[in-house]
Amino acid sequence: MSRRAPVRRRRCPSIAWKGLDAMRAKTRLNCPCGAHVAGVDEDDLVIRAQEHLRESHPGMEYSRDEILFISY
Ligand SMILES: [Zn+2]
After folding, report:
1. How far is the CA of 59 from the centre of ligand 1 (A)?
2. Engineered SS bond to 26: which of 17, 32, 33, 71, CB 3.0-4.6 Å?
3. Contact (CB, 8 A) for 56 and 33
4. Strands, E, within 1-72: which ranges?
């Protein structure tokens, strides 16, 4: 029989912060055409979204701000 000993689990602050940061970053968007675009970070998402627009929606152009506005 042993009493429950307090277990210390230290969480690394930098990992916690990184997770928070990743949650805030917008890395996905659903195009109105139904296509799903995802990137590893916001910059990557913008590039992929613009590639998708060029391939699937010639003539449509969105700025980085506009892409991030509709992403999540
Ligand atoms: Zn599309």
Report:
1. 12
2. 71
3. yes
4. 28-30, 36-38
pTM: 0.67
Measured CA to CA in angstroms, residue 22 lies from 1, 8, 19, 37, 53 at distances of 43, 26, 5, 17, 25
Residue 62: burial class (beta carbons within 10 Å; 0-12, 13-18, 19+)? middle
pLDDT in tens, 1-47: 667 777 777 766 665 666 655 567 899 999 989 999 999 999 999 99
Q: What is the Å distance from ligand 1's center to 5 Cα?
A: 56
Distance 11 CA to ligand 1 centre (A): 41
